[in-house]
Amino acid sequence: MGIGILGVMIEHTIRIGSLPSNLFVSLLSFLSGSVYTIGFLLLSGLGQFMSLKKNTCHDYVKKRFWRLIVPYWIISVPFFCFTDLFCDNSFACFLGHLTTISYWTSGNYSGMWYIAITVFLYIINYPINTWLYCNKKNINTTTLRFVLLIVLLIFIRWVLYSFYPQYYQKISIGFDKIPSFFVGTYIMNCICNRKDIKLLHVVALFLCCLSCFVIAHYVPFFDAYFLMTKVFLSIIIICFLFYILEKSKIVYYIRYVFRWFGKYSLELYIVHLLMFFLLSDYFSTGCSDRILIIVSVSSAIILAPIYNRIVDKVHCFVNSIK
């Protein structure tokens, strides 16, 4: 997850801050855009497959609650108390933002679409994961079900895109990326059952990726899948490069950085966006977006470990009184 959140924060800094175009910024934009939020969801899918594999449904839900919902509430409650209760005097908005329902009714809010989509995916992941991977001995059945799931998601998006365009525009920033999560679970399933993977599956995957590139060039509807395919291929290339340069000292330090960012990925995501929207909407006092996003990202790097420790202490306290 480290490479995912690092890509998100760098890309936000470049886009929101409108950094001057030069070779270094272009290179950073290319590297961060190779992962970005699509890669974030893909990597999340990888992790959630393993989490379900190792835990019961009860343990899975409990861990997701403490790893996603509790940190989100601890970080966001002060922010939404100020914006929704104090400034807007709207308790309904406050509840909608805390429960992430606002994303599904009004669209993206303060950049928290990722939290809303992740909550939704965690809810549906267990039954879908059970259906997809219940037949562990037959990879062909699993692949067929996976293809059916992706086709269903594309069909639902097409219905929204064609018949409910206004609502689709509200939720498209997150809804379009949902297949990335399940691609992640499928990839991890293939890794865990690599003995059953045949050359035909690899060729089929390559042809699907190639098809997305070709179709997206002519059909605007498939632009989202073009971007997904680009990110998937980029992650494969990055992993391959890390594998080749495994013993390099530079790679060792880069991995250390990725591990640190990965440990606090959720806190970093929430803090840097909420901080930016808080500053830009209420305390900007004429400051440019470039300064505000740099301050927000810097604050997130400082505050993320602190919030992480607070969540751990709350967890320990709750366990101690049971």
What is the terminal-to-terminal distance? 32 Å
Helix content: over 70%
Structural class by sheet pairing and helices: mainly alpha
Helix tally equals 15
Major sheet size, sense and barrel closure: none
Oligomer: single chain
Percent of residues in beta strands: under 5%
Radius of gyration: 20 Å
Topology, number of strands: 0
| Order of helical and strand elements | HHHHHHHHHHHHHHH
Overall number of structural domains = 1
- Rough shape? globular
Low-confidence stretches: none
Mean pLDDT: 84
Structure explained in plain terms:
With 322 residues, the chain is mostly helical. The chain has one domain (2-320). 84% of the residues lie in helices and 0% in strands. The chain has helices at residues 2-16, 23-33, 36-54, 57-87, 91-99, 101-106, 113-133, 139-163, 165-175, 178-192, 199-218, 223-244, 249-263, 265-282, 289-320. Helix 4 (57-87) runs parallel beside helix 14 (265-282) and helix 8 (139-163) packs antiparallel against helix 10 (178-192). The longest helix is centred in the last third of the chain and has 32 residues, at 289-320. The radius of gyration is 20 Å and the shape is globular.
Write the layout of secondary structure elements.
Layout: H1 2-16, H2 23-33, H3 36-54, H4 57-87, H5 91-99, H6 101-106, H7 113-133, H8 139-163, H9 165-175, H10 178-192, H11 199-218, H12 223-244, H13 249-263, H14 265-282, H15 289-320
Short summary of the structure?
With 322 residues, the chain is mainly alpha-helical.
Keywords:
322 residues; mainly alpha; 15 helices; 0% strand; globular
